[in-house]
Design brief:
Elements lengths: L2 H10 L4 H8 L1 H23 L6 H26 L7 H18 L4 H25 L4 H29 L5 H8 L1 E2 L2 E2 H19 L1 H11 L1 H6 L4 H27 L10 H11 L11 H20 L4 H31 L34 E3 L10 E3 L5 E4 L4 E5 L7 E6 L3 E7 L5 E6 L2 E5 L5 E5 L18 E6 L5 E5 L11 H5 L4 E7 L4 E9 L2 E6 L5 E6 L4 E6 L8 E5 L4 E8 L5 E8 L2 H7 L2 H10 L14 E5 L5 E6 L11 E5 L2 E5 L6 E5 L18
Length: about 700
């Protein structure tokens, strides 16, 4: 490798593959504005106000920030679920009164005062959640009503019991420590706020309930159609908000050792402004706890700073109103145009050097040498299909294939001239497989893993996997589920080709060259999906070995085939069995003679191999040229390869004329014929295999039996 290539590799591969794209684009873009606004606000007021950064000043400010940010965290959860909570100020005030009355009037322990505050908050949150989640009332009006009722109730309680609180001679060291004490120089309220923020962040980004909150906020109808309990999710989001307001109310009660008429007044305006200024969308489904915290810092520093500079309450309210208006406007405009902006910077190529390969040209003497054997095939569904990426046959010899219109079409044996729409999936059906009971399984692009019953009923099995704990962003969603196969125990092995791009942008992934594909397994007994392997360049075809002890899967953009061991001494590990092929591998399926068929969706070219070693060139190309002028891998010529379990190439089939199947994404052997599909084709090809077993069928081979 030349020194220039080493420099290219170091420069573009310096940041780990699973971090670079999000850091450089979407993650950076979504967080840059609130982060910069926070820095400018803190630095600006710090320079304008004498003593702003002195320890005593910072300690008092951070105490307020701790209480305020807890309220904002709870409100953020509600907003992410697509709601709004105007009642946080009333809940905050009532929780504060509940805690001070428990200690100073009833003489109860501090832990009971905390429990009273938390239960008060959760009770009001449950009322909001029930009215909005279960009775489906409008969130704005409902929480406005509870805001008014809660504030009225608080005013009544203060008028009648404030004197008893003030005249009480009860003291508590624990109470005073919570209000005024420090641990390693940090106040208790700040520590509490940090703990709650971390818990909320982990729950939202790394747990199913958190994903469900984001899904409900993004689209309640889609979340319902995906099987998420929307009403329960909305209900819980308001309970969480009430809980946070209750904790914050307890903390301010400890700090002030009382509650007055102004407790929590206008807090809802401050909290909503903070959440929106931080970058959380009012439309729901988009945002984070971190953004809420940044917004809380901005609003609190702005509010306190203006007061310390001598400006009145009216000025504060005006500034907050202008900030809220600007944030809402930016949120709406950014939501509308963010994809246009991000598309300009999202593609982040890296250096990748392909290995030397053998020729695939006819008469080259190479085991990969293509021919024209599948240039003349019987056509099935010519002109009726659009994009049969995978094909499969059932026990009755009927043929199934997907279309880019979201349909799975069934052609009836024996002549395959009569057809029907077997099922509507709503997405692009890619890989297909039958389970032991004859249920058709499919990887549906950008949607997940689905099962289609014999009657054509469609059911989602999985749309997410366990999140990678080392990933900055949530990579749990299945973005490009591709091919699959079923193990002897019923577990479904399938690939998610890339965590960077959705299914319709699959070709762009080749330009980046980043290993973001993975092999997953779905267990129907538990309903869980787990990631077995990751860091592959477009993980693609999946095929269970004949003995059922291992799984072959393709790595398309690296031109390799790997073997993952399910059983035996190598269980849980993977090894490369074929590398440096001249073609890009796609689906893999079993052959009747104990070997395996593999599709080539396209062939390597010297120009694209060279481009992979020059990420700067690819980066400039994606920035300066329209997409239809980009240099992509050649997907206009492909073929079919048969290989043995040890990776030895046995034979190849091709269509050098381009008449029938120039691009091949799948093939399936069934009773002496090879059925050929292609994602850009308008037909399925039927090719007679010389010497093949005329009684061998695909379904009979699924469970390790030939």
């Amino acid at each position: 490798m030349s020194s220039r290539e080493e420099l290219q590799r170091w420069r573009y591969n310096l940041i780990p593959d699973h971090l670079i794209g999000e850091i450089l684009s979407k993650r950076w873009a979504d967080n840059a504005i609130p982060f910069l606004a926070m820095v400018v606000t803190v630095v600006g007021f710090g320079m304008a106000i004498p003593g702003f950064f002195k320890p005593n000043s910072l300690l008092e400010s951070t105490r307020q920030l701790g209480e305020f940010s807890i309220v904002v965290t709870g409100l953020t959860v509600v907003m992410l679920a697509g709601g709004i909570d105007l009642s946080v100020s009333s809940i905050f005030a009532l929780a504060a009164f509940a805690s001070v009355s428990s200690l100073f009037i009833l003489g109860l322990p501090v832990w009971v005062a905390l429990l009273a505050a938390v239960l008060t908050g959760m009770a009001f949150g449950a009322i909001n959640g029930y009215l909005i989640g279960y009775l489906r009332l409008r969130a704005f009006l409902t929480t406005l009503v509870t805001l008014v009722i809660g504030r009225a109730l608080y005013d009544i309680l203060i008028i009648n019991f404030a004197a008893q609180v003030q005249q009480s001679d009860i003291t508590s060291d624990i109470w005073d420590f919570i209000g005024d004490g420090k641990v390693l120089g940090v106040s208790i309220s700040v520590i509490t706020a940090v703990v709650i923020a971390i818990i909320a962040h982990v729950a939202l980004t790394r747990s199913r309930p958190g994903w469900h909150i984001l899904a409900v906020g993004g689209s309640r109808r889609s979340a319902h159609n995906s099987g998420i309990r929307v009403r329960e999710t909305v209900f819980m989001s308001y309970v969480i908000s009430g809980l946070c307001s209750g904790v914050a109310g307890f903390l301010i009660a400890c700090r002030l050792s009382g509650a007055g008429p102004g407790t929590g007044l206008n807090l809802e305006i401050l909290a909503i402004t903070a959440a929106v200024v931080g970058g959380n969308s009012l439309g729901g489904g988009r945002g984070s706890v971190a953004k809420g915290i940044m917004g809380a810092i901005i609003v609190l520093v702005m509010n306190n700073g203006l007061i310390r500079l001598g400006y009145g309450t009216g000025t504060n309210q005006m500034v907050l109103g202008l900030m809220l208006a600007a944030a809402v406007t930016l949120d709406i405009r950014w939501l509308k145009n963010r994809h246009k902006v991000l598309n300009e910077v999202y593609v982040a190529p890296i250096y990748h050097k392909m290995g030397e390969t053998q020729s695939a040209l006819p008469d080259s003497g190479s085991p990969y040498a293509l021919n024209n054997r599948i240039s003349k095939t019987q056509y099935i569904g010519l002109g009726e299909l659009e994009g049969p990426e995978d094909v499969i046959l059932d026990r009755d010899d009927h043929l199934y294939c997907g279309t880019r219109h979201g349909e799975i079409v069934r052609f009836f044996a024996p002549d395959y001239k009569r057809s029907e729409v077997f099922a509507h999936t709503g997405g692009f059906p890619l890989g297909l497989a039958f389970d032991r009971e004859g249920t058709l399984l499919s990887c549906v692009g950008a949607m997940g893993l689905y099962a289609i019953s014999k009657s054509g009923e469609v059911k989602q099995l999985s749309a997410e996997t366990n999140r990678s704990y080392t990933s900055v962003v949530d990579d749990a969603r299945l973005r490009d589920p591709n091919d699959l196969d079923v193990g002897p125990d019923g577990r479904i092995y399938f690939t998610d080709s890339t965590t960077r791009y959705d299914a319709h942008d699959w070709a762009i992934d080749s330009i980046e060259g980043r290993p973001t594909g993975r092999l997953l397994v779905f267990d129907p007994r538990t309903g869980e999906t787990k990631t077995l392997l990751d860091n592959y360049r477009y993980a693609n075809g999946v095929c269970l070995a004949h003995d059922g002890k291992s799984v072959f899967f393709a790595e398309s953009w690296a031109c390799r085939v790997h073997r993952y061991w399910i059983e035996g001494p190598k269980a849980g590990t993977a090894e490369c069995v074929i590398k440096d092929m001249p073609g890009y591998p796609d689906n893999i399926n079993r052959a009747s003679d104990g070997n395996y068929w593999m599709a080539w969706l396209g062939m390597r070219t010297p120009s694209f191999d060279l481009a992979l070693r020059h990420p700067g060139f690819r980066k400039r190309m994606t920035r300066r040229l329209p997409q239809d002028e980009w240099l992509f891998p050649n997907i206009n010529t492909g073929g079919v390869v048969k290989f043995a379990s040890d990776g030895r190439i046995i034979e190849t089939l091709g269509d050098m004329t381009g008449e029938s199947h120039p691009m091949v994404t799948s093939m399936r052997e069934h009773k002496g014929y090879l059925y050929v599909g292609g994602i850009l084709n308008n037909r399925v090809g039927r090719y007679p295999i010389p010497g093949a077993d005329p009684q061998w069928t695909g379904p009979s081979s699924y469970w390790g039996a030939r």
